[in-house]
Specification:
Layout: E1 9-12, H1 18-28, E2 32-37, H2 61-66, E3 71-74, H3 80-90, E4 95-98, H4 104-108, H5 112-118, E5 123-128, H6 143-149, H7 170-193, E6 197-202, H8 203-209, H9 212-221, E7 242-245, E8 250-253, H10 258-265, H11 276-281, H12 283-294, H13 299-308, E9 313-315, H14 319-322, H15 326-331, E10 334-339, E11 343-348, E12 352-354, H16 372-378, H17 383-391
C-alpha cells in the first residue's frame, strides 16, 4: 500500500528525544529518514538508559523507543568530505531536522542558509529548548527543567509536598509533535508556492501552549491553582535527578555529574553514594541527604553556583510567575485576542515559528454557531434554506454582540 510521505526524504541531524521522535513520526508515515550520527558513539541516547538496564544487555531502550523507520549514516561532520556528501543528499532532500544548541550546525556549514543555497525548496526544522535568543538561550533545554520553568511541575504532585515532574518526557514529546506540525504545514505550503522555508520549534513555547487551559485561567483570574493531595514521579531515574527545596523555593536538577553537584553543595561525605547502582537503589536516601544541603541555599544563589559549573538546573515556578519570566517575555509567548462577548482574553501564542508562513491568531475562540451562516454561504447554501434550517433547529447562528 502507498504511504502518505513515501516521496519525502528527511536529512535527520537530531539526537536525544525531541528531534528523533519527530522524525520517527514522519518515518512511520513512510518518509525516507536518513539519520546522521557521529562515528562510534552515535546519538547520545544510545549511551543512556533507565534503571541501568539495557535491552539484550547492550542496547538503550531510550534510543530504541524513538528511532524506528530510519537508516543511519555515521559521518564526522567536521571532516571536509561531510559537506560534499550531505550537500549532495540535500540537493534532492525535502526536509532537514536538527536539535543542536542554536548556532552549532551553522558554524559547521549545515545551517538553513547553507542548505537553502543548494536547494531553495528545502524545509529546515530546528528544535531547541528556549528559541535562538534571550536570557536562557545558552542553558540546556532539558525536559524536566522546562517542566519546572513553565509551571507544570508546580501544578503537579501532593498538595502539601514538593512539586513533581511528569513521569515521561512530556516537553520533548510535545516539541516533537510541534516539529511535525510545522514540517507538514511547510510541505503543504511548498506544494502551493514551490518555496521551502525555515521552521523553528522550542520546548518552552510548546509546553506553555499545551498548558494553555491552565494558563488562560491563571492569567485571566490572577490566581494560582491549589494542587490536590496526590503525586506522581518518574520511576526509572536515579539520584540526583529531581526537584529539591531551597530556603525560599524549589529547584530542578537534571542529568548532572553527581560529584560535581556534591562539590557545589560542599559536603564531601555525600561522595560515598557516588555509584550508579547505589544512586538508584538508595535514591530516596540520597534525595534526603541532598535536600538537607540545598535547604541551606536561597534559590538564586544555588542556581548561580550550579550554572557556573554547567550543572543542568532550573527554578521551579508557578504558572502565575511563569508569565513574567524573562525568557517568556522575550519570546512573546503571552499574547491576547478580542472575544466578541468577553473582550480581551490573554492566551499563549503558537509555539511554532516559520520564516515564510508564520502562524497568527486571526480569530478568537468562537461562540456556538458564530460563523454558521458565513460557512454555509461559502458552500453555496441559499438564504432560504439557511433560514429554514435555523427555524427547525438544524443549524444555529449565534447572536454576536455588536462592537461599541
Amino acid at each position: 500500500m502507498p504511504k502518505a510521505l513515501q516521496d519525502v526524504t528527511v536529512l535527520d541531524f537530531s539526537h536525544l528525544l525531541q528531534g528523533p521522535f519527530a522524525t520517527q513520526l514522519l518515518g512511520d508515515m513512510g518518509a525516507n529518514i536518513i539519520k546522521v550520527e557521529r562515528p562510534g558513539q552515535g546519538d547520545l541516547f544510545r549511551t543512556m538508559t533507565l534503571k541501568n538496564r539495557w535491552v539484550g544487555g547492550s542496547e538503550s531502550p531510550n534510543f530504541l523507543a524513538w528511532n524506528r523507520n530510519k537508516r543511519s549514516l555515521a559521518i564526522d561532520l567536521k571532516a571536509p568530505e561531510a559537506k560534499e556528501i550531505l550537500y549532495k543528499i540535500a540537493e534532492t532532500a525535502d526536509v532537514v531536522v536538527q536539535n543542536f544548541r542554536p548556532g552549532v550546525l551553522d558554524k559547521l556549514g549545515f545551517g538553513y542558509a547553507d542548505f537553502k543555497k543548494i536547494n531553495p525548496r528545502i524545509i529546515y526544522c530546528s528544535g531547541s529548548g528556549y528559541g535562538d535568543s534571550g536570557p536562557y538561550v545558552s542553558r540546556p533545554g532539558q525536559d524536566m527543567l522546562i517542566q519546572g520553568l513553565t509551571g507544570l511541575a508546580a501544578a503537579t504532585g501532593r498538595g502539601d509536598g514538593a512539586p513533581v515532574p511528569v513521569g515521561a518526557g512530556f516537553a520533548d514529546q510535545i516539541g516533537a509533535m510541534n516539529m511535525v506540525y510545522g514540517i507538514l504545514s511547510a510541505l503543504y505550503w511548498r506544494e502551493r508556492s514551490g518555496e521551502g522555508q525555515e521552521v523553528k520549534v522550542d520546548l518552552m513555547s510548546g509546553l506553555l501552549q499545551h498548558q494553555n487551559q491552565e494558563l488562560v485561567w491563571v492569567m485571566n483570574f490572577g490566581e494560582d491553582f491549589e494542587r490536590p493531595n496526590a503525586a506522581i514521579g518518574h520511576p526509572g531515574m536515579d539520584a540526583p535527578f529531581g526537584i529539591y527545596p531551597t530556603k525560599d523555593g524549589w529547584v530542578t536538577i537534571a542529568m548532572s555529574p553527581y560529584a560535581k553537584l556534591v562539590g557545589v553543595l560542599g559536603n564531601k561525605d555525600l561522595l560515598a553514594y557516588d555509584d550508579k547502582e547505589v544512586l538508584f537503589r538508595k535514591r530516596d536516601e540520597v534525595w534526603e541527604k541532598l535536600a538537607a544541603e540545598t535547604r541551606k541555599w536561597t534559590t538564586e544563589d544555588l542556581l548561580d553556583a550550579m550554572l557556573k559549573v554547567d550543572i543542568w538546573c532550573g527554578e521551579v515556578k508557578s504558572h502565575l510567575r511563569v508569565v513574567d519570566d524573562p525568557q517568556v517575555r522575550h519570546m512573546g509567548s503571552v499574547t491576547s485576542y478580542e472575544h466578541p462577548k468577553v473582550g480581551t482574553v490573554k492566551v499563549i501564542g503558537p509555539a511554532v515559528r516559520m520564516s515564510e508562513t508564520p502562524p497568527k491568531i486571526e480569530r478568537a475562540a468562537p461562540m456556538v454557531g458564530q460563523h454558521t451562516e458565513e460557512i454555509l454561504r461559502e458552500y453555496g447554501i441559499g438564504e432560504k434554506t439557511i433560514a429554514d434550517m435555523e427555524a427547525r433547529k438544524v443549524v444555529e447562528q449565534a447572536d454576536v454582540p455588536k462592537k461599541a
